[in-house]
Write a structure and sequence with these properties.
Number of strands of chain C: 10
Strand content of chain C: 15-25%
Number of helices of chain C: 9
Strand content of chain D: under 5%
CATH superfamily of chain C: P-loop containing nucleotide triphosphate hydrolases
Number of helices of chain D: 8
CATH superfamily of chain D: MetI-like
Oligomer: heterotetramer
Helix content of chain D: over 70%
Shape of chain C: globular
CATH topology of chain D: MetI-like fold
CATH architecture of chain C: 3-Layer(aba) Sandwich
Strand order of the largest sheet of chain C: 6-7-8-3-9-10
Order of helices and strands of chain C: EEEHEEHEHHHEHEHEEHH
Structural class of chain D: mainly alpha
Radius of gyration of chain C: 18 Å
Number of domains of chain D: 1
Radius of gyration of chain D: 21 Å
Number of strands of chain D: 0
Largest interface: A-B, 41 and 39 residues
CATH architecture of chain D: Orthogonal Bundle
Order of helices and strands of chain D: HHHHHHHH
Structural class of chain C: alpha/beta
CATH class of chain D: Mainly Alpha
Chains: A alpha+beta (253), B mainly alpha (223), C alpha/beta (255), D mainly alpha (224)
Distance between the termini of chain C: 49 Å
Chain lengths: 253, 223, 255, 224
């Protein structure tokens, strides 16, 4: 009796391990989209627990048009490019800025959306962009984001002395601006709009110098065929009335 | 902000709860890996040659002295990157938590072995068993029973530590809470919710362990 | 205060634990220089009685008077003062395990009586000398024998300069060969005129020392009288039976 | 040579400031956690019904919630009820409250392991209740609790790395920033790990010395 129960436990544990391992390398025929589950309205998890957002809808439409299967996989943003290169995911359609640094690592589709990078401060704050960049000021942003790379390379390394605070998600950074613990957050205009829609008392004080960035889907360098598929899909999508429908649905403009 | 926030947070519960399976898979995967390695390490630590013992001591010192978060980063970004091993955060979480747990479990089992009367080994040899047989058939069956309370504790530790794997984006409870938070901005309630889920898992786990302990108990081997 | 006025009076003391009545109306008096010995089977309530008198256990009913003042209603500070006047020796010594013998004796002086350390040390050493343990002053309880521990605990109680000492079977957890040293110390105390109430099974000792023996059973005093009367000519049948049994034990220690 | 310069000019200063931050996190948390833990442990035994229930609930929740969840709760959760803590304060409070809950368990166990007679003997000498706890019970209980509480301090050193998750950039945080900036994950995290190993080993050594120092016969350290 005792032995049996011990064996049962061993069996269950083995099954769990196998199951876990299995899920890690199953589903090879499906293209996995790694996305930031905390970047509304582009990509997030909806009330029912399913991936949702502008990019998710767009990819689903493209997949249907171009006849491939797609699965959306929430992935930690700071590790998303390594994950793509390592083959844990097959592409990234998640409001990703096209930057030279990233282009050195992966290929991007043609741009499908342009965002403005802004400094966001508390609603009642009397701060200018210039003041936000003064020594001792704290600017929050998403860990591993294009903003963090740009601010480090073009500001901090050029002698600016403000402090960068890194957050796991964009909403957490904006939240902390509202909390008054950091002076500003460097985010895109869409992220700001989303936060304001949720009632956060924040406002934009304008661009901080980073050129407006284009969003594109990222694919591994060697997957040229798939890149073509995605580009073609994007072109079709933009030409179809569904594109305007999407923009309206996610209230993008 | 506090008003109806909890309702919105609660709507995210089903999605967060799916993370329970991920959390439990990580925890039990790590415990199983830790048990297998820990057993070998413990036996080596008690019965091995001095060099083996020193090696095991070093291993235990290493994995007990470095924070989980640092080990997660070291393995996920560092070692596995250098080895060109492409493992998902989920698997890395199991491996790292398992290695840490093996260091602790080896100490639990070692303590249990050492608490057995010395006569047990002698008696086993006296009836003609080899050392290996003596360990497998007389020492370990007793020691493993004595180790159950220690494991119960180890379960609660690993369970709570598993929340840290959020740093790699493993889709466990904490990660999922943040997914919901990105949509609802209800951080306060979501953290409370996740904490309570962890408490329930702790409670159920320790209860189950106590039941197992009772099941395999022999007179004289109770707590 | 006249000489024959009692120091300590216990009136109709009652105590119950849950359903069981442990003390059912105990009354007795202690005069200066009195040495009263409590005997009786285990569970008779001797220990509870002593604890109640020291206010370590609250009595449910009855009065305890020290110099005519009722102490049962005392609170906090006055209880602490009362306890300093009534010393207590426990069956299992209860030395403070983290302190040396000397510090055990000193701590009450320093922390309770607020005597300066040097003075306290001097007095503590004097008390230890009195019980013959001056050379063990720096040893910890774990390094002392049972008899030595009990002597330290007597020194500790004496240092507080009590008027009455309550001794709860001071030798019962000692090996037979160690009881002698403790009994000698108690004898010395008696000779010095200390007022004492002691629960014990040491009949021969009780006989030579006590001016009254009190026999307790089931939480009540069955009979009391001089040692001669109690041990050899008790009126009550239960007393006689008990004494006979204990005598038998002493004559035939292997039982 | 390049490697050496890189180490000296980029890595060493950043990690040193991170280490300093870690120490500034660990020391106050250790002191506050221990003090609060002793208090809670005493209240769990000697408190009245209300206090017992209160600290019991406290211990239940703070031992039940993962520390990471607690830190997020302090940092990102509390603003929802109008309390704004800096990353540093959130981390120190989080660490202190969590480790106090664990310390209290050890202290409570240690107090329970002390014979009832010690309290009685103290009272029979005229000690007040609090006086007896303070001068007689606690000095013994803390010696008994030392191995467990010492372990808790070691845990604190390691868990201080979680402060990085609530944007308090300490050793791990500086390491992560350096590693991502220069793509030298392996080297940097090896160095960071080594520093933690050093801290933990030093603390272990110090705690053993302390245990030997306060040991009296009957309360010796159990060598293994």
């Amino acid at each position: 009796m005792k032995k049996k129960s011990l064996r049962m436990i061993a069996l269950i544990i083995t099954c769990m391990l196998l199951g876990a391992a299995g899920s890690a390398w199953s589903g090879a025929k499906v293209y996995i989209n790694g996305f930031d589950a905390a970047y509304p309205p582009f990509t997030f998890i909806d009330k029912s627990g399913k991936p949702a957002g502008f990019d998710i809808d767009a990819v689903n439409w493209i997949a249907k048009q171009m006849k491939f299967n797609v699965k959306h996989q929430p992935t930690d943003w700071a590790a998303i490019v390594p994950s793509l290169k390592a083959g844990k995911i097959d592409f990234i359609a998640s409001g990703m800025s096209i930057t030279p640094e990233r282009q050195a690592q992966v290929n991007f589709t043609e741009p499908y959306w342009q965002v403005i990078q802004l400094l966001v401060v508390k609603k009642d704050a009397n701060l200018t962009v210039k003041q936000c960049l003064e020594p001792g000021r704290k600017i929050g942003l998403l860990r591993g984001s294009a903003e963090s790379k740009w601010l480090t390379d073009h500001m901090l390394k050029k002698g600016y002395k403000f402090e960068l605070r890194f957050y796991d998600t964009t909403p957490l950074a904006i939240e902390d601006v509202a909390n008054g613990r950091i002076d500003a957050a460097a985010v895109s205009n869409t992220a700001l709009k989303e936060a304001r829609d949720k009632g956060l008392p924040v406002k934009s004080i304008g661009r901080y110098g980073q050129p407006d960035v284009n969003y594109g889907y990222a694919v591994r360098k060697e997957d040229t065929g798939f890149l073509k598929t995605l580009n073609e899909g994007l072109r079709k999508l933009k030409a179809s009335p569904y594109w305007q429908e999407l923009i309206k649905k996610w209230d993008m403009k | 902000m506090i008003g109806n926030g909890w309702k919105e947070a609660l709507e995210g519960l089903p999605y967060i709860l799916q993370g329970t399976w991920v959390t439990l898979a990580v925890v039990f995967g790590a415990l199983a890996l830790g048990l297998v390695l820990g057993l070998v390490l413990a036996v080596g630590h008690v019965y091995g040659k001095p060099a083996v013992r020193r090696g095991i001591g070093l291993y235990v010192w290493f994995f007990r002295g470095i924070p989980l978060l640092v080990l997660l980063f070291l393995f996920y970004f560092g070692i596995l990157g250098a080895l060109k091993l492409e493992l998902s955060p989920f698997v890395v979480a199991i491996i790292v938590l398992g290695l840490i747990s093996s260091a602790y479990q080896s100490q639990i089992i070692r303590g249990a072995i050492k608490s057995l009367p010395e006569g047990q080994m002698k008696a086993a040899r006296a009836i003609g068993m080899s050392d290996r047989q003596a360990i497998v058939f007389t020492i370990l069956p007793q020691a493993l029973r004595l180790a159950i309370p220690g494991w119960s504790n180890e379960y609660t530790v690993i369970l709570k530590d598993s929340a840290v794997t959020y740093a790699l984006g493993v889709a466990e409870l904490m990660t999922r809470a943040h997914h919901v938070a990105a949509r609802t901005y209800q951080h306060f309630w979501l953290y409370i919710l996740v904490g309570i889920i962890f408490m329930v898992l702790t409670f159920c786990g320790t209860r189950a362990m106590a039941m197992i302990e009772k099941k395999v108990a022999i007179k004289g081997y109770s707590r | 205060m006249t000489a024959d006025e009692p120091i300590l009076v216990v009136q109709d003391l009652r105590k119950r634990f849950a359903e069981k009545e442990i003390l059912r109306g105990i009354s007795l008096q202690l005069h200066r220089g009195d040495i009263k010995v409590l005997i009786g089977p285990s569970g008779a309530g001797k220990s509870t009685l002593l604890h109640c008198i020291n206010l370590l256990l609250p009595a449910d009913d009855g009065r305890i008077l020290l110099h005519g003042r009722d102490v049962t209603g005392f609170r906090k500070r006055r209880v602490y003062e009362y306890r300093q006047k009534v010393g207590m020796i426990f069956q299992d010594f209860n030395l403070f395990d983290h302190l040396t013998a000397l510090r055990n004796v000193m701590i009450g002086l320093v922390r309770v009586k607020k005597i300066p350390k040097n003075e306290a040390r001097r007095r503590a050493l004097r008390e230890l000398e009195r019980v013959g343990l001056a050379e063990h002053a720096d040893q910890y309880p774990a390094e002392l024998s049972g008899g030595q521990k009990q002597r330290v605990s007597i020194a500790r109680a004496l240092a507080m300069e009590p008027e009455v000492m309550l001794l709860d079977e001071p030798t019962s957890s000692l090996d037979p060969e160690l009881t002698g040293e403790v009994l000698t110390v108690i004898q010395d105390l008696a000779a010095a005129g200390m007022t004492m109430m002691m629960a014990t099974h040491q009949f021969d000792f009780a006989e030579s020392l006590a001016n009254e023996i009190i026999f307790m059973e089931d939480g009540a005093i069955v009979e009391k009288g001089t040692p001669q009367k109690m041990l050899y000519a008790a009126e009550n049948l239960r007393t006689r039976e008990f004494c006979a049994r204990i005598h038998g034990y002493w004559e035939n220690p292997e039982r | 040579m390049d490697e050496f310069l890189f180490l000296r000019q980029e890595v060493a200063p950043a990690l040193m400031s991170g280490l300093w931050m870690s120490i500034r996190l660990i020391l106050p948390s250790a002191v506050c956690g221990l003090a609060l833990g002793v208090l809670v442990g005493v209240l769990r035994i000697y408190g009245n019904h209300f206090l017992k229930a209160l600290v019991g609930t406290y211990v239940l929740f703070f031992r039940g919630f993962p520390l990471l969840v607690q830190l997020y709760l302090w940092y990102f959760g509390l603003p929802h009820v109008g309390i704004y803590l800096s990353p540093y304060m959130a981390a120190v409070i989080g660490f202190s409250l969590c480790s106090a809950a664990y310390h209290s368990e050890y202290v409570r166990g240690a107090i329970l392991s002390i014979k009832k007679g010690q309290m009685m003997a103290a009272k029979s000498l005229g000690f007040s209740h609090t006086g007896a706890i303070f001068y007689i019970i606690l000095p013994q209980a803390i010696r008994r609790a030392l191995p467990g509480s010492g372990n808790e301090l070691i845990y604190l050193i390691k868990y201080s790395s979680l402060a990085y998750m609530v944007t308090c950039i300490e050793l791990t945080g500086e390491g992560k920033i350096l590693a991502s900036a220069y793509f030298k994950y392996m080297e940097i995290f090896m160095i960071v790990g080594a520093i933690y190993l050093l801290m933990v080993s030093l603390a272990t050594w110090g705690l053993n010395r302390l245990e030997d120092f306060v040991a009296v016969p009957g309360f010796e350290r159990i060598h293994d």
